[in-house]
Structure formats: C-alpha cells, structure tokens
Amino acid sequence: MSILEMRNISKSFNGALVNDSICLSVEKGHIHALLGENGAGKTTLMNILFGIYTADDGQVIWKGRQVYFDSPMEAIASGIGMVHQHFSLVRKMTVLDNIILGLKHSALFIPRARLRAEIRNLAEKYNLSVSLDSRISDLSVGEQQRVEILKALYKKAELLILDEPTGVLTPEETEHFFDVLRKLKKEGYAVIIITHRMSEVMEISDMVTVIRDGKVIVTKKTSETSPDELSYYMIGRETAKSYDMIPKKESDEILMLKNVTLKKQRRKESLKDITLTVYEGEVLGIAGVDGNGQKELAQVIAGITRHTAGDIIYKGKNINRSKVRDRFDRGISYIPDDRHADGLVLEMNIMDNLMLREFRKKPYSNKFVLNRKVIACEARKSMEEYRIKASGQSREETPVKLMSGGNQQKVIVAREVSGSTELVIANQPTRGLDIGATEFVRTALLNKRNDNKSVILISADLEEILAVSDRIAVMFEGKIMGVLKREEADVKKIGLLMGGIAEVENE
After folding, report:
1. Of 226, 216, 285, 283, which is closest to residue 459 (Cα–Cα)?
2. Among candidate residues 238, 244, 206, the one with its CA nearest the CA of residue 225
3. Planar angle of CA 230, 235, 241, nearest 5 degrees
4. Residue 67 pLDDT > 70, yes or no?
5. Which is nearest to 145 in space by CA: 122, 177, 175?
6. pLDDT category of residue 137 using cuts at 50, 70 and 90
7. Taking a C-beta distance cutoff of 8 angstroms, is the pair 227, 239 a contact?
8. Which candidate, 162, 147, 50, places its Cα nearest to that of 99?
9. Largest distance between two CA atoms of the chain
10. Mean pLDDT in residue range 392-399
11. How high is the pLDDT of residue 505?
C-alpha cells in the first residue's frame, strides 16, 4: 500500500523546467532509492515534498489524503522527516537538547527526565546508540547522523528522506547504518534514499526511480535491474568499467612532508607529525573519515594554512614560507571540498571563474587591463573540453550560481587541472556528483597523472580511492596510520586503519 504518491509534479525556476510531470509512489515498509544526475531534479522534488518549495502543478497524496505543505514544520507534523546531506544540528548544544528542540509542551517546565527516558528507549530499540549528554561538536559524523535519525523518529516520522546518507561514513558505520534502515523497514517505516553509489542501491533498496532532465525515466524493482542498466538510464550512455592507468616505473619525488604538525591555540593538534612523500606521475589517495585532518593537510600543502612545525619540500625546495599565489605559480593547484565557500565566486560568470588564477598573465591581461575577447575564447574552449553545460547564446557569461553542482565542479576542475599545473591537491572532488560527472572528474585527474604530473586525492569514498590511486595513505585523528600500495590495499585493511587500528594480527 502506498503511503506517498506524488502525481505529475512540475516546478520551474526562472523559466527553466526542473521537474516535468514527475510521478513517484512509495510504499510502507519499503526503501525507495532515488537516482539522477546533478541538476536532474531530485532535490527539488524532495524539497517540494518537505515543504521547502511549492509545486507549480501536480498533487501530493500523503496517507490517502491530498496535502499542501507550506513549511518543513508542517511536513514534520504530518509524519515526514528529512536528514539533509549537511546536518542541521546545533553544535554547541547536547544531543538531548537537539532532539527536543522545537517540541511544544503544555507544562511550564520541560519534563526532561521523561523525555530522556523516551529517547533512550527509542535509541535502544533501533540500535542508535549515542550519549544524550554529549555536545554535538564532540560527536563523530556517524553519531551525528544517528542524532538526526533519532530526532526524526522521536517526532513521529513515518517517512524518512535521506540525502546522500553514507557519504561521510566508514565502511563499518555504513553497515551499521544499513542495519538501522533494515530494522526501520521491518517496523513499517517508508524510506527514500538519495545516493550516487550503485552498490548501496543494490544492497539496501526495494525500488529505484531514475530521474533525468527533470523527468522520470524508469521505476523498477531493484531485484530486477543492475548497476549497468541504472547507469545507462541515468546518463544515457555506458560508463567506464575501469580507468586507464599507464604503468609507472620508479620516479622522482615531487613533494615531501617531514614531521609536519598543525596546532591552533587552545586546541588539540589537527596534524600530528605527518611524514609523507608524493612522486611524479602518481595519484596518492588520502583515505579517512571526514574530520581526521584531511582538509587541514590539503590547506597546509596549498599554503592556505601555515603549519606550526616541520618542513614541506616541493621539487627540492623548502616552501614553508611560500604563499598561495607563489605555490600556484610553482605548479601547485587546489580543488577545495566546499565549492561554494572556497572554489567559486557564485555571483560571477563562468569565464571569470575560469580565469581566477590566470587573469594577471598574458594574453589575458596587459598592464592590468583585461582582454575580454581572449578570456571569452579560452572559456569557450574549456567549456567544450570539460563538457560544461550552460544555456543562452553567450554561455560563458552564465552566472555559476545558476548551474548544477556537477557543472560548477567542472568549472573548478577545468581551472585547477589545466595549464602548467604539476601537482593537483583534490579534496573530495566528486562529492555529491552523479555518475557521469564523477567519471569525468576522475578521468581528468588520471589524464594529469598519465601526463607524468602528480595528484593528491582526498576522498571519503573508498571505491574511488581504490579505483584511481597508485598508493593509499590513511588518516586518523591527524596522523598517517599507514601507506598501502594499490595491489595490497582492500576495503577491510583501509577500514581498520580509518578506525585507528594500525596493525591487524594474522588469523
């Protein structure tokens, strides 16, 4: 029996049709996967369901009754919960206070003892163990996710919408999370899971709906389809089964980190005595759960953050005191993990964002006067080479804020990978991207590697790390737990290192 039906939902923004007569049906006790490229319309559809947007046309039938949600609060009150990709928790507050935040009570005082007991029982029932008195800021990402799910369940959600829920979890945390979903399914809850990982779709979902260009392409039982078929439905073509990695002989060192440490005032060390080598013509993968020093490592190498001890040697020269621009001029580029905050100027257009690094140089400028014709011409070439999609006659003048996440990321990759770059630091370069965009970004990085340049790839996606890395370094709490060669690495070994276990006894 369907608990939710979305009938002929349509939504436009600035004249562009984002959802085109979409129909979606979700049953009680089912896990329904929602797949689609970036910009396909998945998030818009879920935002309509959750009361963030209002549909231009169509109907939402919830538990047999037509509904109109004007806000998320109305959706929550009706039994719909949503766990966003970026958690909406108050970091300075405790777990208990986050869960009861916004609840209405008739009494003058909040009955904290009763609420605590109810939440503890709920956590035990669904194996969502977490300390109710801990501050959110002190919890791991996996524990924060449990808080979000507990919050939704405590507010009587009957349908859970989960947006990329495993993107920041270790393999062990992912298995635990799937166990929770299976238990919820047994209890009769309905779940919509948005994910780009085909292995997860096949493992956890009952039904799958593929959306492309704002339209439903297919809805099938998961047991009656395959990852290859779903990939084809998503992007309309075959995807790469493997990546072309030209065999490499021993090569020279391009980057050496010697005992690099980062400690900010009154805080524990973000990086602890990091010693690491990157060779020419290799992809060095950096694996680990988010928040274990990977971002700090990337920013220290790029020159954004000044480390407090140790040495960074690039092409035989100490660059401890070199600034970001100096390092870029030497051939170091940086793809940040947050494209909106650190990678793009959203109000600027495509061609200006593509020129953020090079605009001071000829032929793009002469004595501080920009040559707009040359910049536009180069931008069009980059858009063609990197398949950056934009609408309108002067596509290069499209503001990047109007583009999908995948195309925004391609703008950053085109800027950072092109030209004279010799070392690319790529921090979560495919996070949140669909299969097609992910494949494109990985191929661009590997092309750089095959051209005898170097790549540091930081990723929480173990499939990605294993697919494209020559060597894999694993981080835990600011330390390098181990470095594995491609041929000796597997998910179990990496997973244990990610959890802080440096050595495993032979069975």
Report:
1. 285
2. 206
3. 65
4. yes
5. 177
6. confident
7. no
8. 147
9. 73
10. 80
11. 41
Determine the Cα–Cα distance for residues 140 and 142; give it in Å rounded to an integer. Answer: 5
Q: In whole angstroms, give the CA distance from residue 374 to residue 385.
A: 17
Cα(60)–Cα(51) distance, rounded to whole angstroms?
11
Angle (CA) 225 228 230, round 5°: 55
Q: What stretch of H or E contains 156? A: none
Q: Find out whether 430 and 188 touch, Cβ atoms under 8 Å.
A: no
The token duo for 336 is: 């940040």
For 463-472, letters b (16+ CB in 10 Å) and e give ebbbbbbbbb
- Residues 153 and 122: beta-carbon distance below 8 Å: yes
The length of the chain is 507
Written as one letter, the residue type at 127 is: N
Q: Which whole number is the average pLDDT over 352-376? A: 84
Contact between residue 376 and residue 326 where contact means Cβ atoms under 8 Å apart: no
Ramachandran category for residue 491: left, alpha or beta (phi over 0 → left; psi -120 to 50 → alpha): alpha
Cα-only R_g, the chain? 24
CB count within 10 Å of CB 422 equals 18
> Tell me, what DSSP letter sits at residue 322?
-
Out of 290-304, 400-414, 452-466, pick the least confident: 400-414
What single-letter amino acid sits at 37?
E
Q: What is the residue type of 93?
A: M
Joined together, the tokens standing for residue 284 give 């060095």
Give the HSE-up count for residue 165: Cα atoms under 13 Å, Cβ half-sphere: 29
Task: For residue 474, give the nearest of 285, 242, 231 by alpha carbon.
Answer: 285
Preceding omega of 72 cis (within 30 degrees of 0): no
**Token couple for 63:** 């538990």
- Report strand pairing: 369-370 vs 365-366: antiparallel
pTM for the full model? 0.66
Q: Judge whether 123 and 130 are in contact, CB under 8 Å.
A: yes
E-strand stretches of 204-252: 207-212, 215-221
Backbone angles phi, psi at 138, to 5 degrees: -95, 0
A 10 A CB-CB count for 124 gives: 10
Pairwise CA distance, residues 187 & 184, whole Å? 5
Listed residue (403, 466, 453, 404) closest to 424, CA to CA = 453
Which token pair is 215? Answer: 């339209």
Structure tokens at 369: 């006067």
Handedness of CA 147, 152, 153, 159 (dihedral sign): negative
At 257, list the tokens: 């980190």
The predicted structure's pLDDT at residue 108: 62
HSE-CB of 210 using CA atoms within 13 angstroms: 24
Q: Which residues of 112-250 form beta strands (DSSP E)?
A: 159-163, 190-194, 207-212, 215-221
